């Protein structure tokens, strides 16, 4: 469990690129909780930007999608492997909105 968590953490950190800090915790139900933070952004209240998503693969995708959008919005021109999945992330966002309406 611990090994797979740190392996996931390394993979997520590699995909998120140099601006991100990625941390994976376990919640009370032993589910992965993904936390992706931005090393350069300071959000309101002097707290660094971060996103927090629970759940194994869904949580990973949701946190990574949010991070990808953050990079595009706030740090255009930054290189990160996750940007390769931008169109897939936009499609997922679109699909989630469709499901809600
Ligand atoms: Zn940022």
Please give the structural blueprint.
Blueprint: H1 2-16, E1 20-26, E2 32-43, E3 47-54, H2 57-74, H3 86-100
Antiparallel strand pairs: 1-2, 2-3
Zinc ion is lined by residues 38, 40-41, 49, 70, 74-75.
Task: Report what the structure shows.
The longest helix has 18 residues, at 57-74. The protein has one domain (2-100). The chain has a 3-stranded antiparallel β-sheet. Helix content is 48%, strand content 27%. Strand 1 (20-26) and strand 2 (32-43) form a beta hairpin. The chain has helices at residues 2-16, 57-74, 86-100, and strands at residues 20-26, 32-43, 47-54. The N and C termini lie far apart (38 Å). The protein has 3 helices and 3 strands, in the order H-E-E-E-H-H. By secondary structure, it is α+β, with helices and mostly antiparallel strands. The mean pLDDT is 86. It is globular, with a radius of gyration of 14 Å. The chain binds zinc ion. Zinc ion is lined by residues 38, 40-41, 49, 70, 74-75. Residues 38, 40-41, 49, 70, 74-75 line the site of zinc ion (ZN). It comes from Nocardioides aquiterrae. This is Ferredoxin.
Question: What keywords describe this structure?
Answer:
single chain; 101 residues; alpha+beta; 3 helices; globular; binds zinc ion; Ferredoxin
